[in-house]
Amino acid sequence: MNTAPAIRQATINDVAIVAKMFDAYRMFYQQPSDMKGATEFISERLRLKESVILIAFINEHAVGFTQLFPIFTSVGMQRTWLLNDLYIEPVARGKGIASALLDAAKAHGKSTNSKWLMLQTGATNVAAQALYEKNGWRKENDLFYSISL
C-alpha cells in the first residue's frame, strides 16, 4: 500500500459517510439495503455516545470503518469493547486498511484502559478470520448464544 490511511473517530457530522458504508456492510451479510434505517441507526449511536466508530480515509475519501460497542467484564472489573462491525470498500480491500483499523481499535482500547477487545465473525468468513489471526487476535471458541426478546 502506497499511502497509509488516515484514521479518525467519527462525529455526528460523519453520519452520511458512515451510513453509506454501514448499509453496504449490512448487504454483505445478506440484509436488504436500508439507507434510512442505516442513517438513523448510526446517527443514534453517535448522538447517544453508544458506540465509537473509527473511519479510514485515503486521500480524504472514506474507505472503511469499524464500530466498537462498550461492554464490561465483571470478573476483571474493567471496560472492554466489542468490535461489532468492520467494513472496507471493495476497491480498497487488500491494501492494509483493515489492519490499520484493527490497530486503531486496539489503540482506542488501550487509551480507555480496557481489559480486552472481542469480536465475532461468520464461520464461513475465512478471509476475515485470516485477517484477525494475522493481526494477533486469538480464536477463543465457536460458541455463541442468544435469545430473541
From TrEMBL:
Q: GO molecular-function annotation terms?
A: acyltransferase activity, transferring groups other than amino-acyl groups
Q: What residue ranges carry the coiled-coil annotation?
A: none
Which InterPro entries does the record match to this protein? Answer: Acyl_CoA_acyltransferase (IPR016181), Bact_Acetyltransf (IPR050832), GNAT_dom (IPR000182)
Is Amino-acid biosynthesis set as a keyword in this record? no
Under Gene3D superfamilies, the record lists:
3.40.630.30
A Pfam entry, by short name: Acetyltransf_1
Q: Which UniProt keywords apply?
A: Acyltransferase, Transferase
Kindly list the residue ranges recorded as spanning the membrane. Answer: none
Per UniProt, residues of the N-acetyltransferase domain are 5-149
Q: Which PROSITE patterns match?
A: GNAT
What's the name of the protein?
GNAT family N-acetyltransferase
Reading the lineage from the top rank, the first entry is Bacteria
